[in-house]
Each structure stands twice: as C-alpha cells, then as structure tokens.
Amino acid sequence: MIRILYIFMGTVSVGLGIAGILLPLLPATPFMLLAAWCYTRSSPRLRRWLVNHPVLGAPIRDFRDNRPLPRGRLISILAILWTSIGVSVLIVDPLLIKLLLPAIAASVTAWLLVRQTRLARTPSPPGRLAN
C-alpha cells in the first residue's frame, strides 16, 4: 500500500512539474525532485525513466551532481520567487502571513545563493566539464 502511495505521489509530482514547465509562476524542479524521491522509494524503473528523461531529468541530474545553476536560470528563479511573494503579500490579509512570506523568500534566496557560491568554488570532478 505504501509503495502505491509513493508511486501516486511521484506521478502527481511529475504532472505538477510538467505544469511548472509551462506555467511561469509554478516551479518545475522541486516537483521533479519530489517525484524522484517518491520513485526511489517505490519503483526503480520509474525513477530510472525520470532521471534519464532528456527534459524532465536534467534538473534532477544537476541537483544530484551538485552542479551550480546557470546564472540566467538563477536570476529567473529569484525574479519569479520575489514577484510571486510580492503579489501574495498584496493579496493576503493577515499580518502574520504578510511578514512570514518575505521571510520564507529571503531564506530560500539565501540558501540558493550560498549553494551557488559553494558549488562554484568546488572544483569539477575529473572528466566533467566545469560550468
């Protein structure tokens, strides 16, 4: 039963990830990472399919191999993040949420920038081209 639940959650995550490729404010990569995690716990065949897929698997492989994001992609991610948070803050009413959303965005931004800096300083493994 748990295996079926993981497969279901992974498949829903792949669907949301595909929607995230097409919709500008919905991120694709976190859903693909979640799908890979679910498939790892339920179906090696589905995980292999997802990780080796030429389009859907690229962000998973980049994350797995600790590759830094290309500068353009990082700028896009941060612009979309802060735009969606800004719009959300204008729409929501409770003050706590108005304060919490920018704090979450700042945390995600800090994590991305620290990860980028750390990965940019790490030499590429032998046989791998540096980004």
Order of helices and strands: HHHHHH
Total strands:
0
For the record, give the distance between the C-alpha atoms at the N and C termini, rounded to a whole number.
42 Å
Rg (CA only): 17 Å
Q: Main β-sheet, in a few words?
A: none
By helix and strand content, what is the structural category? mainly alpha
Range of helix content: over 70%
Spatial shape:
globular
Features:
131 residues; mainly alpha; 6 helices
In short:
The protein is an all-alpha fold.
Would you kindly provide a written description of the structure presented here, covering whatever features stand out?
With 131 residues, the protein is an all-alpha fold. Helix 5 packs antiparallel against helix 6. The protein is globular. The mean pLDDT is 85. The longest helix has 27 residues.
